[in-house]
Amino acid sequence: MILKCILPLLFLFNSFCLIASETDSLTNQMTDEEYLIAIDNFYDSIEQTLNYEHGTVTIKNGLAKIEVPVGFKYLNGKDSEMILTEIWGNPPSEIADQSLGMILPENNTPLTDSTYVINITYSEEGYVNDEDAKDINFDELLETMQTSCIENNPYREEQGYDPVYLVKWAAKPFYDSENKKLHWAKELKFGDIEEHTLNYNIRILGRKGFLELNAIGEMYVLDDVEKNASKIITSINFNDGNKYADFDPDYDKVAAYGIGALIAGKAIVKVGLLAKLGLMAAKFWKVIALAVAGFFAGIKRFFKKED
Asked: Are 122 and 42 in a shared domain?
């Protein structure tokens, strides 16, 4: 599978090399195996800069804390944002939408070929009233979301990204009304890529907004994500003063949507938002994206001889 994933990258990389005279002759001499070795070395150089944490982690200036589950590790927001944008080639995040970190399996890295990561962000858009949760028709909601994906694809393509299609629920939404935690999973298809992508979503409601946890990987990691979902969901909570129960109607803003729109990615509230909701492609796209979003510059530096 690796070679299949790398070949499009090699094509793109060779295209870039046509306009780079100082590396052109070198790269034309490289075999496929040498390309793979170069990419592995490039990944290793990135991995050495990443700092992982365990135990209790406080995020966003005391907003919430994570008790990193056994078998997992935490990568800080700065490094996570770099992975998302510079390495995986996702659209640059607005400041309010930037990653607060990633949780990922202990023995893997964001660059591991067959893994998943759980990206964490926070949306301070107000207290989400959950009264509509018991009345949602999830089949109808799925159809609305599928239509929204299609309608947003021209925007994605204008920005240089593959169209994305919502295939089906990988796991139907479930709302824990007692703990104010919501989770569901979507099966996505990006462009012409055959392998589908898993987007496992967790939302934790708070006083002024909600934490977003998006588990991203290929469909075959679904069983592992579901097996660990419970301990991941329970591992992160708002601190006192920021909890859902701390809402003060006299002072706090109420969000313009409920649980249904939260699951829909607010697509029915704000057109175009799906283009930046963490709907990123699977591991092979992480590799291909290098050629599109910085790989050439990095590999050029990698091969450049010291004076």
From this structure: no
